[in-house]
């Protein structure tokens, strides 16, 4: 039952109908995708719970301070932010993190 609930949340927040699609497109297994989704949700709800990570939320999580800006966090977030609108979706977040997976080429 929990698995169905999780799939429904992914569809609503990230645009993906089934997290198994994400697992087939990325080097992550389902448990890793679920853990990354939980992390994504903790970050995206740190200031505004809208299903997206705002640049401000990312900086808040990294520094625990919204007023502190850093060129490193700006550049890292810009890699997540493929639409250049200062927010990122779960799919983009997962895509970026996949380059750090041990089996990434």
Give me a quick take on this structure:
The chain is mainly alpha-helical.
Give a written overview of the molecule.
With 105 residues, the chain is mainly alpha-helical. 59% of the residues lie in helices and 4% in strands. It is globular, with a radius of gyration of 14 Å. It has a two-stranded antiparallel sheet. The chain has 6 helices and 2 strands. It has a single domain, classed as EF-hand (Recoverin, domain 1). Acts as a calcium sensor. CBL proteins interact with CIPK serine-threonine protein kinases. Binding of a CBL protein to the regulatory NAF domain of a CIPK protein lead to the activation of the kinase in a calcium-dependent manner.
Helical stretch tally: 6
CATH class: Mainly Alpha
CATH architecture, by name, is Orthogonal Bundle
| Secondary-structure element order, N to C | HHHEHHEH
- The structural domain count equals 1
Radius of gyration: 14 Å
- Spatial order of the strands in the main sheet? 1-2
Q: What value does the average pLDDT take?
A: 79
- By secondary-structure content and strand pairing, the structural class works out as mainly alpha
Unreliable spans are: 1-16
Q: What is the percent of helical residues?
A: 55-70%
Measured by DSSP, the beta-strand proportion falls in under 5%
CATH superfamily: EF-hand
Q: Say what the CATH topology is.
A: Recoverin, domain 1
Distance from N terminus to C terminus (CA atoms, Å) equals: 35 Å
Largest sheet: 2 strands, antiparallel
């Amino acid at each position: 039952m929990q698995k169905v609930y999780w799939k429904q949340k992914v569809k609503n927040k990230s645009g993906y109908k089934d997290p198994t699609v994400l697992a087939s497109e990325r080097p992550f297994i389902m448990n890793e995708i679920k853990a990354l989704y939980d992390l994504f949700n903790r970050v995206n709800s740190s200031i505004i719970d809208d299903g997206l990570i705002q640049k401000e939320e990312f900086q808040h999580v990294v520094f625990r301070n919204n007023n502190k800006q850093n060129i490193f966090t700006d550049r890292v977030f810009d890699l997540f932010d493929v639409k250049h609108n200062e927010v990122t979706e779960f799919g983009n977040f997962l895509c970026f993190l996949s380059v750090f997976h041990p089996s990434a080429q």
